[in-house]
Amino acid sequence: MTIPLSYYLVLSGILFACGVMGFLIKRNIITIFMSIELMLNGVNLSFVAFAAKWGQLSGQVFVFFVMVVAAAEAAVGLAIIIAVFRTRETLNIDQVNLLKL
Amino acid sequence: MSITFFIIVSVIKIVLVVFILLTAVAYTVWLERKVVGHMQNRWGPTRVGPFGLLQPAADGIKFLFKEDLTPPHVYKPLYIAAPMIAVVFAITSIAVIPFGNDVWIAGHQIFLQITDVNIGLLVVLGITSLGVYGVALSGWSSNSKYSLLGGLRASAQMVSYEIALGLSLVGVLILAGTFSLRGIVDAQAGHFWGFIPNWFIFRGGQFVAFFIYLTAAYAETNRIPFDLPEAETELVAGYHTEYSAMKFAMFFMAEYANMITVACIASLLFLGGWRGPVFGPDWLQAILPLFWFALRIFVFLFVYIWVRGTLPRFRYDQLMAFGWKFLLPVAIANLVITALVVALK
Amino acid sequence: MLNLHLILFLVFGAICVAGAVNLLLQRHPINSALSLVVVMGALAVEYLLLGAEFVAAVQVIVYAGAIMVLFVFVIMLLNAGEEERTGGSHVAWILGVPGMLAGAVIICWALLRHGNTGDVSIGQLPGHPADIAQLLFHQFLLPFEVTSILVLIAIMGAVVLAAPPESVQGSKREAK
To answer: Which of C58, C125, C140 is the closest to A52 by Cβ?
Structure first.
């Protein structure tokens, strides 16, 4: 029971594209962060698909590392969001524009 | 075996196991009320049926007919979905738990387990992690300060103690060499020194891990001494304050189903699963492992209820400090010592 | 051509894409967070289809069960409400979205039409935890240790960044 590998890559590409679009059009900081996580998930699927194709387990091990880095980034990013919320009282990125000319 | 036979057998197993689990949940409630009652020098339920045995049925009918009130200020979609999430994840983890050895029916070998996955223990841990959503979302969607505080505290507590829970099980995994629950039980076969069974709590020296697991499990299931998030004197009722009738009953069921799952995992990993003296004719030999397994589950639930009736509850900062500053280092120490012993053998 | 692998792939792929699109369309961040959890669950099944059982389990335990819980926590704590319509960057709307859509369509078309990357069967590369552990602790030991230090730094950073400002000043005053 086989399907072409490109199907998995297409799914990975669609998820990545949704992540990029979310990053561009959403205005809430937390939702933008979640779009980044969506992009990382799409990339993980590519890793696992290619690992299966070439028979190398290193692809799956790399997914592990991507997840760890995503966890660390989520923790620090959310802490920054909390700190920004304390001073700016808003989660809308269009209103965090003190440095604008 | 053919596909249709496999599907029929699986469906029968699922229906049987879910039915038994739900009945066990109902009668665990009865057991708790009787045991706590006797500890407090009173009878507990006695009127409905002999020894109050029909009390769970009466409770079920009461919950069904109670007025299902939805306060106007809640966030409706999540308010309705949260108890469902809690119950679904509480009941799903029973799918990988083996209850006994194999039976031979119509010339086919059928395992007394809905499905045996290579990563059975990880599946159970994953479903436990997902169970936090039921609590967190119910607390938030109820839109009231007691619920929000209770939900936040409960989910922070569950997430913190999950780590100690998982780490305490890694010692067993090192000794067993597999994540499959059936494989872990099979690794505890035999006896040593003549009569002491080869369970991991004795032979593997995992008694410290056993106590860490038990304590972390009390915190995961939000039971005394760790039940501050739903204590009546502190937070009205915590994350299920705004729920009535069937939705509340679903949270209740989820809590007791989690207790039963925890008891199953503890007996599989530390107390040798379904192993016990087997004798007699063929059909008895198939039934006896189930009986030994049920006996272990009963002992666990009794200890759970006994602790509930005896100990006072932790304050929240004491609870978090205990989980992070005591249980986690002890679990890591247990893991390191077990790994050293196995490596040096 | 229609086999069980394809059916399962399509069902869970559809759930993934539906969750991803729902993340974009929802206005309340809690709904976006929950659709992302659904995406991660469906992705875990896709990993299982490729045989990566340990990765699928870790995806559920770590990503859906811990990282997304953190997101839900922060949304609950900050009481994030529905998004307001504040214009936003016009460049993003005019160039970014159509550009990304076009890019995605081109990639999908190229892969489906001309990508002769071969076939994968169901459970093609069994990722047993034992084999992954072999790789992780022998060949990838340095990245493993480096990521553990990275996580330690992230924990310290998160604690310092999210601490209330009074407690930081209080400790500075005590140190004087």
So the answer is: C125
Give the separation between CA C33 and CA B67, rounded to whole angstroms. 32
Assess if residue A101 is contained within a domain.
no
DSSP state of B47: S
Phi (first) and psi of residue B195, to 5 degrees: -125, -15
Say whether B319 sits in a helix, a strand or coil.
helix
Numbered ranges of CATH 1.20.120.1200 in chain C: 1-81
| Greater model confidence, B275 or C12 | C12
**What's the gap in Å between the CA of C81 and the closest CA on chain A?**
9
Indicate the number of domains in chain A.
1
Residues of A in contact with C43 (CB under 8 A): 41, 44-45
Residue A21 contacts C, CB cutoff 8 Å:
yes
CA distance A53 to chain C (A): 6
Listed ranges A83-97, B103-117, C151-165; the one with the highest mean pLDDT:
C151-165
Subunit partners of chain B (3 or more CB pairs within 8 A): C
Q: Which residues of C are less than 8 Å from B155 in CB distance?
A: 69, 73
- According to the model, what pLDDT value does residue C1 have? 67
Residue A20 lies in a domain: yes
The single residue listed with the structure tokens 């194709």 is: A53
Judge whether A100 lies within some domain: no
Q: Pick from B66, B69, B122: which is nearest to B93 by CA?
A: B122
**CATH number of the CATH domain containing A48:** 1.10.287.3510
**pTM for this prediction:** 0.90
Chain C: which residues have CB within 8 Å of chain B?
A: 30-31, 34, 37, 53-54, 56-58, 60-61, 64-66, 69, 72-73, 76-77, 128-130
What does the pLDDT average to over B1-16? Answer: 87
Say yes or no for a CB contact (<8 Å) between A52 and C4: no
Residue A52 falls within a domain, yes or no? yes
Interatomic CA distance for residues B319 and B315, integer angstroms: 6
Lowest mean pLDDT among A44-48, B70-74, B208-212, C31-35: B70-74
Q: Which chain C residues have a beta carbon less than 8 Å from that of B118?
A: 53, 128
Tokens of residue B277, six digits:
């003296």
Q: Is B130 within 8 Å of C30 when comparing Cβ atoms?
A: no
Q: Cβ of C120 and A53 within 8 Å?
A: yes
Give the whole-angstrom CA distance, residue B199 versus residue B271: 5
For the domain covering C1-81, report its CATH number: 1.20.120.1200
Tell me the pLDDT tens digit for each residue of C29-73: 999 999 999 999 999 999 999 988 999 999 999 999 999 999 999
Residues 6+ apart with CB under 8 A from A29: A81, A84, A91, A92, A93, A96
Across all residues in chain C, what is the average pLDDT? 86
Q: Above 60 in pLDDT, residue B189? A: yes
Do residue B155 and residue C61 have CB atoms under 8 angstroms apart?
no
